[in-house]
Amino acid sequence: MKFLKRLVFKLYVLFLMGFTVWYGMFMYPLIFGFEGKEEAAESLRELSHSKSADEEMFDRLIEEQSRTSRTDLGFKVIEQPYIEGRFHHIGFSVQKDQASICVRCHGNVPHNKSKELRSFMNMHAFYLACETCHMPAEKGEPGYEYRWYDKDTGKLVPNPRVLHDIEDSYRSAVRSYPTYGNYGAKIAPGIEENGKFRWLHGKKDMAFVERYISEQERLDQEQKSQMKRVIHRGVSKEPVACKRCHNEEGQFLPFARLGYPPRRTDELTNSSVVGMIQKYKEFYIPSFLTPGIEDDDEDKEEQEQQAEE
Amino acid sequence: MNACYSYKSFALLAVIVSLIAFSDQVPAGDELNCVMCHKHRGLSRIDENGEFRLFYINQELFDSGPHRRNKCKDCHTDIDRIPHKPAKKVDCAQQCHIVEPSGQKKFTHKPIADTLARSAHGKLDADGKPKPYQDDFPECKDCHDQPFYRPISVYKGKVKSGVSERAVTRCKACHTSGDFAEDFYEHVTSRLRKTRFPLETIEVCAKCHQDPDFRERHELDDVVTTYKQTFHGKLIALGSEKTPDCLDCHVVAGENTHLIESQTVPSSAVYKDNVPTTCRTEDCHTKAGANLAGFQTHVTYDRKKYPLQFYMLMGFKALMALVLYFFLTLIFLELLRRLFPNFTFIKEKSVDSSPQQKKS
Fold it and tell me: What is the pLDDT of residues A230-245, one digit of tens each?
C-alpha cells in the first residue's frame, strides 16, 4: 500500500514536471511570437519570388478551392465560393461530378475550342454527362435510354425535384428563385437489357480510368495512345448538335420522361432558346434598344473582307 | 438586302414575342432577357490565361441590393447582341438609366470616382503626375462586389436587422406602385448603418495592406496585423459591430468614406493634430482627452524604422522571459527534489553522533 502511494506521488510529480516544461514551450512563441511571424512571412515572400507566374496561379487556384466569402447582412449570412475579382454574387457551391470518367481528366469546365459556344456547352456539362452529346448511338443501332445519375455516387436517381420548382415558379404570383443547372444529378445514356438498366460507362470503366491515371507515368507514349484509344472508344467525331434537342419536333432527349414539366419543355424547345440557336449569328438586339451603338470592329472587319472578296 | 431586313424584322418579332411569352420570369431590370442564359449556374469557361470565368447571375442575390433596379445593359453597355462577345470592363462612372430623385439627373458613380481620385488611393499625386506602381491603386471592383441592402427594423424602440413589414405597409398606404416602397425602405434603412460588417471592411483593406510585397513597394507598415492586436481589432474579431473598423478612424466624420487621406495630409482624420477629434466623435469616446490615441496606434517593431519601439519591445520580452523562465526553472528543480529527495552530487561523510546527543 505504501509502495503504491509513493508510486502515485512520483507519477504526480512527474506529471507536474512535464507540465512545467510544456508551459515553458507554450509560452515561448507567445513571448517571441512577433519575430517568428516576420521571419515566416519573409521566407514565404522569398519562396513566392522564386515561383513563376504560372506556379503562383496554380497555388492560388489550390487556395481558392476551399476559399469562401462571407457576407453578414445582419438578418442573414451569405457564404459562397470565392472567385478572385468577381463582382456578382454566386450564392451557393455547385456539386461537382465525382462519378464521370470523362470529368476525371477533362474537368467540370471542359469546352474551350468554340469561342461562341464554349460557355453554353460548359453550362450544359453541369447537367448533361459528356456521353450524352459525345457518344450518341450509331446509325442503325437501337438508341440509348437516358436517365439521371447522382453526381456523387453515380447511381440512378429519380428525376430532380428542382425541375418542378422551376415549373411552379412560372405560375407563382410571388417571385421565386429556382435554381437552374444545379440539380445534383446529370443525364447520361444507358442500355436497358432484360428489364435491367446499366450505364454506358459504369464502375468498371471508372476503375480502368483510375488505373490509367495512376500508372500513366510508367507508360511510354505509344502505350498511352493505346490506352486513350480504349478509353475514348465510342466517342463520336460529331457531337449531338444543339438543335437536335432545342427544336419543336422530335427532340433527341426525351424531356418529359426525364422529368421536365410541360412549360419548361416548351421553353427549351420553342421560342426564345430555339430562336437564339437558329438565328445564332444574325440575331441582333434591335437597334432602337441600343441607340448610338454601332456594330463592333469585328463586324466591320467582316464587312471589309466581304467587300474585298 | 430586303430579305435581310425582313429576316431582322422577324428576329425582332421573335424577341418581343418571347419576352412577352416569358415576361413573368424576366425581372424588371432584364428587359433583354439576359437571364435566359445567365441564370444557369454552369455558364462558364476557362479563359486564355487559365482563369475560371463564371457568367452566372444569382437572381435572388442580385435582387437583394440597390443594383436590382438597373438593367444589365446599364453597366454592360457594349453588349449589343445575343449571344455576345466577351463583355468589356464595366465603367462604374458611366451614367445609368436610373434618375437620381433629388436632382432629377441620371445616376452615376462619377462623384465617388472623383472623390477616390483625390484620396490616398487616387492614381495621381498632388501635381497630377501618376504615382509609382499604378496597378496597386484600387478601382471600384477591387474593394466592392455587388452591394447588398442591410436594412434595419425599428419598432417601439427595438432595433433589429431586416425589413419591418409594419413600416413597409405604412409606406404602401400612399406609395402603391410596384416595389417602390420596399426599394425605398431598404435603401434608406441600409444607409442608417454601415453597409458592410466591420470584419468584412477589414478584410477588404487587408487584401492590399496585409500583402508584404505591396507594403514593401509603398513603404507601409503592417497596419492590419497591428490593428488586429488592438482592443478594437479583437472586439471585431469576436463579432462586434459597434467597434470602429478602418474606415471609422481613417475618414473624417461625415465625409465620404472614399476620401481616405494619408496621415501626412493636414485634413486627414489621422493627421497627428486631428487624432483626438477623430476619437471624440459623438458615437465614440466623446469625453476623450487629447492623449487618448496620442500613442503610435499602428506600431510595428521594425528595427530600422522604429528603433526605440523595437528595443523597448525587446526589453519587455527579455524581462518577461527572464521572470517566467526563472520561476519555471525553480519550480522544476523543486519538483525534481520531490522526485529524488535524497539525491546529491556531493556525498557528505557520515558523522557518528555522540551518546549524549542521542539521549537528548
Answer: 999 889 988 898 888 9
CB-CB under 8 Å, A126 with B146: no
Q: A181: distance to nearest CA of chain B, Å?
A: 5
CB A37 within 8 A of CB A31: no
A275: nearest CA in chain B? B14
Interface check B93 vs A, CB under 8 A: no
Q: Is the ipTM of this complex over 0.90?
A: no
As a whole number of Å, the CA-based R_g of chain A is 29
Output DSSP code: residue A218.
G
In the predicted model, is pLDDT for residue B99 greater than 90? Answer: no
A70·B200 Cβ contact <8 A: yes
Per DSSP (E only), the strands in B42-174 are 44-46, 52-54, 95-100, 105-108, 152-155, 158-161
Under DSSP, is residue B253 helix (H, G, I), strand (E, B) or coil? coil
pLDDT at B355: 54
What is the distance between the alpha carbons of residues B96 and B76, in angstroms, rounded to a whole number? 10
User: Do residues B251 and B257 make contact, with C-beta atoms less than 8 angstroms apart?
Assistant: yes
Residue among A57, A119, A123 minimizing CB distance to B50? A57
| Residues whose CB is less than 8 angstroms from the CB of residue B333 and which lie 6 or more positions away in sequence, other chains included | none
H/E element, A273 = helix A271-278
Helix axes B307-339, A2-49, angle to 10 degrees: 160
Examine the pLDDT at A134 and tell me if it is beyond 70: yes
- pTM for the whole thing? 0.76
Residues 6+ apart with CB under 8 A from B271: B261, B263, B264, B265
How confident is residue A171, by pLDDT bands cut at 50, 70 and 90?
confident
Q: Which residues contact B8 (CB under 8 A, 6 or more apart)?
A: A282, A284, A286
Over the stretch B22-37, which tens digit does the pLDDT of each residue have? 444 444 556 678 888 8
pLDDT tens digits, residue range A63-98?
A: 666 788 899 998 899 999 888 888 999 998 888 899
CA-nearest of B277, B223, B280 to B246 is B223
A218-232 pLDDT, tens digit each? 999 999 999 999 999
Cβ within 8 Å of residue B279, ≥6 positions away: B249, B285, B288, B292, B293
Chain B residues inside the 8 Å CB shell of A303:
none
Tell if the CB–CB gap between A123 and B77 is shorter than 8 Å: no
Q: Which three cell numbers stand for residue B86?
A: 466577351
> How far A58 CA lies from chain B's nearest CA (Å)?
9
Q: Is there a contact between B25 and A75 if contact means CB atoms under 8 Å apart?
A: no
Q: What is the DSSP letter of A296?
A: -
Q: Taking Cα atoms as reference points, which of A260, A267, A263 lies closest to residue A148?
A: A260
Q: A137: which 3 cell numbers?
A: 448511338
pLDDT for position A295: 42
Residue B131 Cα, gap to closest chain A Cα (Å): 23
Please tell me the predicted confidence (pLDDT) of residue A85. Answer: 85
